[in-house]
Request: fold
Amino acid sequence: MKKVIFTDLDGTLLDRFSYSYDQALEAINLLHEKKIPIVFCSNKTRVEQEAYREELNIRDPFIVENGGAIFIPQDYFPFPFNHHKTTKDYLVIELGISSQKVREVLKRIEKEVGCHIKGFGDTNVEEIAQETGLNLRFAALAKQRQYDETFKIEATPEKIELALDKIEKAGLTYTYGGRYYNAMGGGDKGKATKILIELYRRKLGKIETIGIGDNQNDIPMLEVVDIPVLVQKPDHSWEEIGLPNVYKVKGIGPEGWSRAIQKLIES
Ligand SMILES: [Mg+2]
Reply:
């Protein structure tokens, strides 16, 4: 049966601190050899993901900004399907509202609550680089958000809770990745993954889908694949996600990624 891989990036295919994928290179080459698609499903922006796709020679569709949109290379699926936008390189399925709209809601809530919500939109590239450990090039790419906003809330715990409550009441969803919050309207990793699974089924027939993640924000993606996989976090623990069939692989980030691929693909 043809397999398709859906994978998170930060803390999964990429090391949580160095953003290196070196430990996963052999497994990526194995997937290339077997012509198995690798679909990024990450909080990262289009331009960030394009940089990694280029470096790793990956040409498959990809899901940006936590499910805000799906970018599908032109002619990848040999049949017409619903999409919202066509660019020079891609057909784009948009699930989330614009970052601009998300930021407007956050600004209003900031005023109402009397806290400081500091988004990537208000932060300069140097500061993002310093806080995230990204180099300046990637920090600039991370700032180019189209469908969500990454932010911190500077306030007392009570006000943070109030702000998060108001974000949900405004119809947005948020995730917390350990360092930043992320708010969006409309999309999530699961919805986007499901759409691509359907398109792959139309193209390839019966397929087996594998999803690999490390964190809470991967749950929607892991819920809709056949084989959900969790890699270890830097402290060697696995995220508690309450999925009964999850395969907890040994190895932090890309090391676990590699082990999971070797095991699931070779067999
Ligand atoms: Mg992650």
